[in-house]
Amino acid sequence: MRVFYSLRGKSNITSQVIVSTAPPVYHLGMERRSALKSMIVALASGSLASAAKQPTGPAPRSSLIDTRDKARIRFRDWGSGRAIVFVAPWALSSDWWDIPMSILSERGWRCVAFDRRGHGRSDEPNSGYDFNTLADDIAAVMDALNLEDVVLVGHSMGGAEVVRYLTRYRSRRVARAVLIAPTTPFNMKTDDHPDGASRESLEKTLASFKVDFASQVVKAAPDFFGVSKNSVPAEILDWWTRQILDRCSIKVLSELYKTMMETDFRPEIQTIKTPTLILHGDIDKSAPLESTGHPTHELLAGSRLLVYENAAHALPYTHRDRMLADIVAFAGSSPV
Asked: Which amino acids are annotated catalytic?
């Protein structure tokens, strides 16, 4: 994007850092896959996304769950075995996890992802775009499906939602957490955080969303995927762009962006006891490593940070195979 939440920061790493080169209410219903998603699976290749088969066994289930405030959250539940729950980045829906979920569900994992409120096929309530409510929505999904011993994976702003879930619910149902290029710990400029974004910068960005957001998203795609270092088909860039423009309103995007920027996670990150893996690219412009991944790692005692060389923000696609291998290795063997 002109990357909407790009910040600068410094940190001194004191923990392990590894540089890597290489149920309430159900409303059941099946949903067609779009032609565009089929094209992605067919065309993507190499480490980006070799054509993934649909999960074996029972057909993928698409369902809705009622949350505390009666917003209906649409989720996917593929495969069987130990559960991995995926939380998508800002502005993206559960479609973001299609190929990783297809692969892991074929390998003996139960994969669950959901459309965040206001995104995709979930309801768009007038309120609830704060991290407490978003954490409550994660809880609603895991409670409805009665998941235990979960590996909870969050990408980008989804990583911040994972952090709030772990602290708000004291890691209930979760055995391990994975933060992929998280936007934590804090993004705003304050007396004790001088390298953050200014209030004026935030207001300018929010105002720009109402002027020419579509162009901003299109221009952001190459940096999001790191095309200067990674081969990414044009169809993938278009698919990502369409997800943002077609699956989430400017109102919701703006409210969540403001929430993401203004929330200070520094105190609560230090209270997390759940074993946590942080994966981050060294050329990430959306959530720069020195502003997000490194300080999050420093604050989260016992966490493990893997830095991917020549990787930007889109690790689930540009470095998918490596990312999945690292998640599975960290999680331990699937009990199937």
From this structure: 156, 284, 313
